[in-house]
Design a protein that fits this description.
alpha+beta; 2 domains; seven-stranded mixed beta barrel; three-stranded antiparallel sheet; about 20% strand; globular; Protein kinase domain-containing protein
């Protein structure tokens, strides 16, 4: 790649440094215009003119000429590669980075870059030109600054503007999918369709909701163990497995172990929990309404010691995503009175929001099983696509309406009290002449989606225009808001949330149900087999980052080609056992995320094969050996995971992959130092010390052989 690329208008947009400006609107616009003009002047003298005329391109794609040469030289069809080189000072110091925490990273600790333009070859020893190492620009920038080397000026600037890793598929995403499906159900003609069947029957009237009986703990979600049809509004509840794929929602987000239902009411009309070998075959779809329901009560097994630390981390993450911190609202000139315009500037309003009451317990949930929704069978297990009915409040948290707060702030600013408070706030800081305050503006490129032929987002590019973001340091006017938390689709909702969720039909009077049904996979085991119990322990002990989705790419050794940072394993939703001793065998149940179907190597591209292969090495980098390296243990599904479920996923050109089947997996990480009294929480899962080195070597060979053979290392289809 020619050095001139980093001096093009796209590469030199903003140095990330803010600029202080006056506060009124005219001065702000002038300041922005001046800054834009200065950027244009700087760009006019940057580098060769032929490079400046390069068209806008996708930073997630390698330049065409470079790609063609790479594919020809290495006889490969891969499209992801490292193609840039970091220039070194010929007299620079040796720069090795092994073991150092440098640059931007994802929680897995691997080398990370936001785009393909953020990876480099570089010379650790400048005087040895043939010795090249691969790493990321942010790591190199940190290392070069440690050494005092600023030779690669433009590369340093590019690294400074690289965005930090961003996590996708967060707990709040499922709420959007659920409310969207609810609005579709409520708008069905006459309340019913061939795809949607209510328990009430096609001729029944839409009933009023009867509150759920029983007292719930103040810190717990509603207990739905004894929920009845009359506890639902409108045409809910729906018959199990009657909503169809278009209305189903897969649960893909984190649920901390502490919030998993303590009791599981399992509905099993076909006695699938007995896991008889003769019955583990797919059957024609059976009408649930014609079956006599058989109900079993299960309970959640306590978390293992190895999972305790991860559970606490996930609880904090889950809470942070629902918390709304104090809101700083910038003043709007169109609502400012003449009196306010006479002030030196209008300080922003700091809105104090009410505290969000987090729930710490989920008493119960329902699980529905059907033989017509089998996901697969194996030597020791059977897996079903199941419907999991949970308290809706667990998946759709309350919201604080920002639009209502904006309206409240506008009214407050036109109030005489605001003028007095603003005067006092300004006077308090202007007495100290050394206290500087004002607005700081930053220009940032707005990501734009690249659509494939089907109109589905496939990647992101930087557009030709940018936008201005503001931050503020200085006095504020505090305000206590009267806006309260609202449950979308239930209870009293403001017009803004009604419009956003479309969960109500005001003419028919239907509201959202008190529960939400999501799709998960339920794994059962044969009697006398202990693989499932062990697999549940492994899921709890695995690092949290293995089930997280992040932006950008990782370098997964021994490969030098970047791969996307999707999740490695499915989300784990608990291990349940019968609450009471049974006369006949009932299988334990492990609930996990539904991640698609078994991979077909014949339809994968070279990049997709490398991405699927990298999952095994990422699993090993996390100090685990899978011990069952076969293509049957890789699942795939279409569409980018960062977009909502629905047509954008189903018709997407991207694929995500996941490893499954950890009943034989072993831990190969370090032990706690002896004599410190720390318990070895991995003792029951740890690999044998006598064979660990040979096990690692054998697994590496199997992974590499599988990739070389096009992921056809095994041709069986067992789970």
């Amino acid at each position: 790649m020619r050095r001139g690329f980093l001096k093009t208008p796209r590469a030199t947009k903003d140095d990330g440094k803010g600029k202080k400006a006056a506060v009124n609107a005219d001065d702000i616009d002038a300041a922005v215009d001046v800054k834009n003009e200065s950027k244009k002047e700087d760009n006019s003298n940057d580098g060769p003119t032929d490079i400046d005329k390069l068209p806008l391109h996708n930073p997630h794609c390698v330049p065409k000429a470079v790609l063609e040469q790479y594919q020809t030289n290495f006889e490969t069809k891969t499209t992801r590669m490292i193609f840039r080189e970091w220039p070194r000072d010929p007299n620079g110091k040796t720069a090795f980075m092994k073991g150092e925490q440098l640059g931007k990273q994802t929680p897995n600790g691997l080398v990370w870059g936001n785009t393909l333009y953020d990876f480099y070859y570089y010379r650790p020893m400048p005087d040895v030109p043939s010795y090249l190492v691969t790493t990321s620009g942010s790591r190199l920038a940190d290392k070069m600054r440690q050494l005092g080397e600023d030779y690669a000026t433009h590369e340093l600037e590019w690294a400074d503007r690289e965005k930090a890793p961003q996590q996708f598929v967060l707990p709040d995403q499922i709420a959007l999918d659920i409310t969207s499906r609810e609005s579709h159900v409520s708008r069905e003609p006459g309340g019913y369709s061939p795809k949607i069947r209510s328990v009430r029957g096609p001729g029944s009237e839409l009933a009023e909701e009867v509150p759920i009986a029983g007292d719930s703990k103040p810190n717990a979600h509603v207990d739905i163990s004894d929920i009845k049809p009359e506890n639902y509004p409108g045409l809910w509840p729906l018959l199990p497995f009657s909503r169809g794929a278009a209305y189903g929602v897969k649960l893909e987000t984190l649920l901390p172990y502490s919030l998993l239902p303590k009791k599981l009411v399992v509905h099993d009309p076909w006695n699938l929990l007995q896991v008889r070998r003769s019955a583990r075959t797919k059957t024609d779809e059976t009408d649930w309404a014609k079956m006599t329901d058989i109900v079993h009560e299960y309970e959640l097994k306590p978390i293992t010691p190895a999972g305790m630390k991860k559970c606490k981390q996930q609880e904090e993450q889950f809470k942070q995503l629902t918390d709304d911190h104090d809101i700083l609202i910038y003043p709007l000139d169109n609502v400012a009175t003449e009196e306010l315009k006479g002030l030196p500037f209008i300080p922003p309003v700091l809105v104090k929001v009410p505290r969000y009451e987090h729930k710490s317990e989920t008493p119960a949930a329902h699980l529905y099983l059907s033989p017509s929704h089998s996901a697969g069978t194996g030597h020791h297990s059977a897996v079903y696509h199941a419907e999991w009915e949970l308290p809706r409040s667990l998946l759709v948290p309350d919201r604080l309406c920002r639009a209502c707060i904006d309206d409240e702030v506008k009214e407050f600013m036109q109030n005489g009290d605001f003028f007095k408070l603003a005067q006092e706030a300004i006077a308090a800081v202007t007495e100290d002449s050394e206290d500087k305050f004002g607005y700081v503006f930053k220009h940032e490129a707005v990501p734009a989606l690249v659509m494939d032929e089907g109109g589905v987002p496939t990647s992101i590019i930087e557009p030709k225009t940018d936008r201005t973001h503001g931050s503020y340091h200085g006095p504020v006017v505090p305000m206590e808001t009267k806006v309260t938390w609202q449950t979308p689709g239930r209870g009293e909702n403001c017009q803004h949330i009604l419009l956003a969720t479309m969960a109500f039909d005001s003419q028919r009077g239907t509201a959202a149900p008190p529960t939400a049904v999501v799709n998960v996979c339920a794994k059962l085991s044969l009697e006398g087999d202990d693989h499932l119990a062990r697999e549940a322990k492994v899921y709890q002990a695995l690092p949290a980052h293995l089930s997280e989705h992040w932006s950008g790419y990782n370098i997964v050794r021994p490969s030098r080609e970047p791969v996307p940072v999707g999740a490695v394993v499915p989300q784990f939703y608990g291990y349940y056992v019968p609450a009471k001793k049974q006369e006949r065998y009932l299988s334990p149940i492990m609930l996990v995320e539904e991640c698609g179907k078994q991979v077909d190597p014949n339809v994968l591209t070279a990049d997709q094969k490398k991405e699927a292969w990298s999952l095994y090495y990422r699993f090993m980098d996390a100090d685990w050996l899978h011990q069952s390296v076969y293509d049957r243990n890789i699942l795939t599904q279409t569409g980018p995971m960062s977009v909502p479920q629905g047509w954008m996923r189903e018709f997407g050109s991207e694929c995500s992959f996941r490893l499954i089947d950890f009943g034989r997996s072993v831990y190969i990480g370090p032990k706690a130092p002896e004599g410190e009294g720390e318990e070895d929480v991995y003792k029951s899962l740890r690999a044998s010390e006598s064979y660990v080195h040979s096990d690692i070597r054998n697994e590496r060979e199997m992974i590499d052989n599988m990739l070389q053979q096009g992921l056809k290392f095994a041709s069986t289809s067992y789970l």
